[in-house]
Amino acid sequence: MATRKHFEGIAAEAFIADTDRWALDKLKRIPLLPQVIQKFYELGLDRWFYCYNMSMSVRCGPTQYKTLYDIMRESAAVLDMPEPELYLTSNPFPNAWTSGVERPYITLRSSIVDTLTDEELFHLIGHELGHIKAKHVLYKSVGAVLFPLLEMIGRRTFGLGDVATIGLILAYEEWSRQAEITADRAGLLVSQSLDISVDANIALTAGPTRLRGEQSREAFMEQARAYQDTSIMDELGKVLIFLSKTGTYSHPMPVHRTQQLERWVLSGAFERIMAGDYEREPEAVSA
Prior knowledge:
Largest sheet: 4 strands, mixed
Radius of gyration: 19 Å
Helix content: 55-70%
């Protein structure tokens, strides 16, 4: 494994996307959100998710899938954050996710481990750690059960919350998309190579294939740039398609996200962090 720089005291604000901040602020302004979060805790859903995940997955550690555990430990050290629990579960569809508001954990599907190289797994696990460090987990967890919770609240209010419900769903979906851009930046800070992060996104977009040797990083980036270079009507169409399809994907718009990651690098922000110029946690500054 490559030697990685560790960003001592780095604050999440160093890599949180401006669009993430804007969308989360808009989400928090929806009047219905506090009721949804309260119901989430009242029902004990965070504990239920944790118990269910433990019942269906194998926890990684020094003597259990040590390679994955070591990647997670090193990734957490790079971002200077506590280590979450790490789990591996059997599933033929590649994916990974982070949950656990009070006890954070990352779950990897077996197929995603088979799809990515060890170096690309640094990007993936760094991406998931980014959700934890940026404090996305509460809203991601609530979003996983958003529709049932809104239905329960809607019945109690006799449908009076319908307008707020629609506003909450739209605001949540927009924030969820922007949160992935932030998490991708964390993945890049851990992989410390745009090429590796792009290759990871290609593999995640195309899925497992015996033809992986034929993939082209340059062609994928040309595709990403073409996706961004569209007319106003095409932009409107992309928004409408995203809103109608986003519920079926936990990590939406990988081509768009890859282009955003390249733009972040071209802005010079990534190199500044690599050089040690980044926002630090208050306690790190005082120390």
